[in-house]
Fold:
Amino acid sequence: MRNLRDHLLVCFIVLVFAVLTACGSTNPASSTQDSRSDQTAEASGDNQASTTTAQQDGAQVNTFKHDFGSIEVPAHPQRIAGLYLEDYLVALGIKPVTQTVIGSFSLKYLQSSIGDLPKVDTSAIDYEAMLAARPDLILLAFPNYANDGNYDKFSSIAPTYVFGADAPDQWREALRTIGELTGKQAEAEKVLQSYDSKVKDAKAKLKAAIGDETVGFVRVRSNKEIRLYGGPGGYVGNVLYTDLGLNPPQIAKDLAWGEDTSMAVISKEIIPEITADHLFITYDEGGKELAQELINSSIWKSLPAVKKNQTYEVSMDHWMTFGPLAYNKKVDDVLQALVK
Structure:
């Protein structure tokens, strides 16, 4: 019996030891599996984050080349600064993040759309103000805005596109380019179609109203400079002579006509030669006093247009700029003056 009890006791001990060993070996195996699951989950999380980042970094961007290099622009930029190009942006339904001023000059005709925006003076550019506006795209209307290292300063803030010196004359193409840069191609075409339709109607009305009578344009600047505008391009010529097909006076053809010049600085001695049937005049804010002196002078009063009471004062802020909204206002001014 004693041997039997001893044998059973040994068997019991062996069985207990086996059970304990089995239990002990289960926990480490389970911990290892959990650890592997955690590692797999962590790895999966890392991959997901990388994919999201790649999708964000890989969002559609378009590359545009210009005279100062090339830039990559998001398909639909949200915060756009356009120095002297606010007209285009507003026409496309975009509110820019800044407004251009040149000293005391501002784009008054756009103030209802941009009057609350921070000002950037192109005569003394404040890059801190531009940085504070947080643009994701900067558009510069003229190459001189980018010269002397300025392009690098703008580019350090946001991708910067610089238009060529011919942008004022090629304003339709400039509008299409801005449409491409901003993802507003369809809107740009609608703006152009609307303007062209307006011009077609205006030409017919003007032809009926004044026939082949001549139309001139003079500006008095704040530095007492008198300018005669011709064509076929430029701020004035594009509308008066190219789009509306009006006839310039001979003096404009002689002094201010051609691809290289659409404006001539003239002396008072030249004024009697402005024999236009109709004459538009505008002046800078600082040129108002001189303009009034000119208007009151005997030289001015001797002009055919003045004698016929066919002189018309127009606002400089939209005549001395370019863009679809300004050009529409110029057409409105001409119709109001010449079509009775």
